[in-house]
Specification:
With 184 residues, this protein is mainly alpha-helical. It has 10 helices and 3 strands; from the N terminus they run ααααααααβαβαβ.
Length: 184
């Protein structure tokens, strides 16, 4: 069971090469859990800016990769202990994510998740949303965004692209836009 976790990690990064952070939308079991269950207890406040800073995100990623590497070194060749170490890591980080959701946003952990961080770096701005001048800045897009992006902030006089590598490509913002100003 524990080896399902690195499989998910590799799948998320692999998908990022073509689709950006699409994996993090609902393919990610943890992201789906946060959206379906944890969102009910979250105050849906802004995700702390620190969590969006590259140095912080890369630091968390480096720390977790160091823990995984150390566990591989210590437990090799005992596959059951290696698998268990993945389960423990996933459990601890999920609990951290739930605690963060109590104070901020249900997807706060997703901003520092190693898979999300690497996917953002690899996927960049693949398949960006477009925003037309029809945008009223009503902020409906922000209210439904699982990662708390503000697509309306990218609006200018001309059609613009919503260039945010954190976009999950979930299209929730497209579906709620009253003027259909967001599109692919």
């Amino acid at each position: 069971m524990g080896f399902f976790i690195p499989l998910c990690m590799f799948a998320g990064v692999w998908m990022a090469f073509k689709r950006g952070r699409k994996w993090c939308d609902w393919y990610c079991p943890r992201g789906s859990f946060y959206d379906v269950w944890v969102s009910n207890i979250s105050p849906k406040k802004d995700i702390p800016e620190l969590f969006r800073k590259p140095f912080f995100r890369l630091g968390v990623t480096a720390l977790l990769f160091a823990v995984v590497s150390l566990n591989l070194f210590l437990f090799w060749p005992d596959f059951s202990r290696i698998g268990l170490s993945f389960v423990v890591m996933a459990t601890v980080t999920t609990v951290i994510g739930v605690v963060l959701a109590f104070f901020f946003h249900q997807r706060s952990w997703c901003m520092v998740c190693p898979v999300g961080t690497v996917s953002s770096l690899v996927g960049g701005n693949k398949l960006p949303l477009k925003i037309s001048p029809l945008c009223l800045k009503c902020k409906q897009c922000f209210k439904v965004c699982p990662i708390a992006i503000r697509p309306y902030a990218f609006k200018s006089a001309n059609v613009e692209r919503v260039k945010d590598p954190e976009c999950l490509k979930c299209d929730l913002c497209v579906s709620v836009c009253p003027k259909k100003a967001l599109y692919k």
